[in-house]
């Protein structure tokens, strides 16, 4: 029940983006998230590294042909990124979500411009999942969707929401007639807007907001007005996404 040097090196390498991209794999950790991933995408599982008790209790979830590695708690801790005691570590194949002009956006879609905080991206995916948003597009300079902190914060949303890295201009080439709403400080109140669906909502960087390049391509500039006496300088990107999605899908 001890990991080999090569196994240890491989599993720990997936902590880093360059190696996740090289192997086209990512990490899923924790009992609840692992069980959900195994149930939802059994054929995408490459390896299951877990405590013997967990393996025995979840034998029915293990896909045939999957590499199963029983380990002691101390060995699992060597490859885990979780601060709390863990029981299972999955290596999962990255899905290939492809978007082009033949792909239809039937409802609401999100474009995330330079979102850097993994917790924000994970929460936005969770919000998208809650409101039935099928597509979330990320600018190339945004945090990677398969970052372990994003995966954890998404609470399983990564299994249901299609997340694609794409330049904004490239996305517009595929769907040039799609209404494009962007959250900006000087925009019209979102609560006074008449939502058009399908539509794309652009959410900007946590501190800088939407880039000038993207703002120039918007068809609608919207904002979330402060309440009476409100003093905060801005809203968290994920919070703003939740408010706008709630309004558009009301």
What does the main sheet amount to? 6 strands, parallel
Going across the biggest sheet, name each strand in turn.
Answer: 7-6-5-9-8-10
Order of helices and strands: HHEHEHEHEEHEHEHEEHEH
Number of helices: 10
Mean pLDDT over the residues: 93
What is the structural class?
alpha/beta
- Strand fraction band? 15-25%
Write structural notes for this entry.
The structure is a single chain. The chain is α/β, with parallel strands linked by helices. It has two domains: 89 residues, 60s Ribosomal Protein L30, Chain: A (2-Layer Sandwich); 141 residues, SPOUT methyltransferase, trefoil knot domain (Alpha/beta knot). The chain contains ten helices and ten strands. The protein has a six-stranded parallel sheet with strand order 7-6-5-9-8-10, with helices on one face. A four-stranded mixed sheet has the order 1-4-2-3. Strand 6, helix 7 and strand 7 form a beta-alpha-beta unit.
Compile the SSE list and pairings.
Elements: H1 5-13, H2 17-23, E1 25-29, H3 31-40, E2 45-50, H4 52-57, E3 67-70, H5 73-79, E4 88-93, E5 108-112, H6 118-130, E6 135-138, H7 148-154, E7 162-165, H8 168-174, E8 180-189, E9 199-203, H9 212-215, E10 220-223, H10 237-248
Parallel strand pairs: 2-3, 5-6, 5-9, 6-7, 8-9, 8-10
Antiparallel strand pairs: 1-4, 2-4
């Amino acid at each position: 029940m001890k990991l080999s040097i090569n196994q240890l090196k491989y599993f720990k390498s997936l902590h880093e983006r360059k190696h996740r991209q090289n192997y086209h794999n990512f990490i899923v950790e924790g009992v609840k998230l692992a069980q959900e991933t195994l149930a939802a995408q059994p054929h995408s599982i490459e390896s299951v590294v877990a405590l013997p008790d967990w393996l025995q209790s979840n034998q029915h979830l293990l896909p045939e042909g999957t590499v199963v590695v029983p380990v002691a708690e101390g060995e699992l801790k060597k490859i885990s990124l979780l601060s709390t005691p863990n029981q299972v570590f999955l290596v999962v194949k990255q899905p290939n979500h492809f978007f082009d002009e033949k792909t239809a956006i039937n409802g609401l879609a999100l474009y995330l411009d330079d979102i850097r905080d993994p917790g924000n991206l994970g929460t936005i995916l969770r919000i998208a999942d809650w409101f039935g948003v099928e597509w979330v597009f990320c600018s190339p300079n945004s945090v990677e969707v398969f970052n372990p902190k994003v995966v954890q914060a998404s609470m399983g949303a990564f299994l249901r929401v299609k997340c694609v890295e794409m330049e904004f201009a490239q996305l517009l080439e595929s769907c040039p007639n799609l209404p494009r709403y962007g959250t900006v400080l000087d925009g019209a109140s979102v609560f006074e807007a008449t939502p058009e669906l399908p539509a794309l909502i652009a959410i900007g960087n946590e501190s800088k907001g939407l880039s000038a390049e993207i703002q120039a391509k918007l068809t609608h500039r919207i904002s979330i007005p402060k309440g009476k006496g409100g003093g905060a300088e801005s809203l968290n990107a994920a919070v703003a996404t939740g408010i706008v999605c709630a309004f558009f899908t009301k």
